[in-house]
Design goal:
The protein has 200 residues and is α/β, with parallel strands linked by helices. The chain has eight helices and seven strands, in the order αβαβαβαβαααβββα. Helix content is 34%, strand content 14%. The radius of gyration is 20 Å and the shape is globular.
Length: 200
């Protein structure tokens, strides 16, 4: 039964999502997919900037992991992680951002916003957290843009979505407004009302 999931990949109906971070692993993954004649999506991809020509040649889209990290190698430029999304886009490679961890999903706009500061066009950064991601995973007809017939998961903010200081004002899931209350907000409100210690 586990192998049933691979049938659409082998038949060419769905791509194979390969998680690889270092340049050597990325090259080996591309070589494997070429031999097996399967379409590939690269995920993680910390050193994708070192394999741009290969990814462009095979038209492989990339889901970039968290960019707010240190370079993989001590010899890499200090801004290699921040600048990579812009470099991949400039080379014509389709990109999306991924958190690869539910606890970091709230940081996706920050990943995209940081990349804008290092060369990725603002509109392309927005697409990389919306339309591109949906399209890569074969969900472009359901998600990623605001159109009739698509799932209406929307946020309304008080500023630029990619700015860290921007606050979410409203959240809609499948068209229904959803409460923004959460445990962190509850704790903040509880402890912000604590009596202040008396000054002596």
């Amino acid at each position: 039964m586990k192998l049933d999931a691979l049938a659409p990949v082998v038949e060419g109906k769905e791509p194979l999502l390969v998680v690889a971070f270092q340049a050597r692993d990325i090259r080996e993954a591309v070589e494997f997919c070429e031999k097996q004649k399967v379409r590939m999506i690269l995920a993680g991809a910390s050193e994708a900037w070192k394999t741009i020509d290969l990814l462009k040649k095979d038209n492989i889209p990339v889901i970039i992991g968290p960019v707010l990290t240190m370079p993989q190698s001590e010899d890499d430029p200090y801004d290699s992680e921040y600048a990579m999304p812009g470099q991949l886009y400039a080379a014509g490679i389709k990109i999306a951002f991924g958190s690869f961890n539910t606890s970091f999903s709230r940081r996706l706009p920050q990943y995209a916003g940081t990349s804008v500061g290092y060369g990725l066009p603002h509109d392309e950064a927005l697409k990389a957290v919306t339309f591109n991601a949906a399209q890569m995973l074969g969900l472009g007809d359901q998600l990623g843009t605001i159109e009739p017939g698509k799932i209406a998961n929307l946020v309304v903010t008080d500023g630029d979505l990619l700015e860290i200081k921007t606050q979410v004002k409203y959240l809609f899931i499948q068209g229904w407004q959803t409460s923004l209350d959460n445990k962190q907000l509850e704790l903040y409100e509880r402890f912000s009302q604590r009596p202040k210690p008396e000054s002596h």
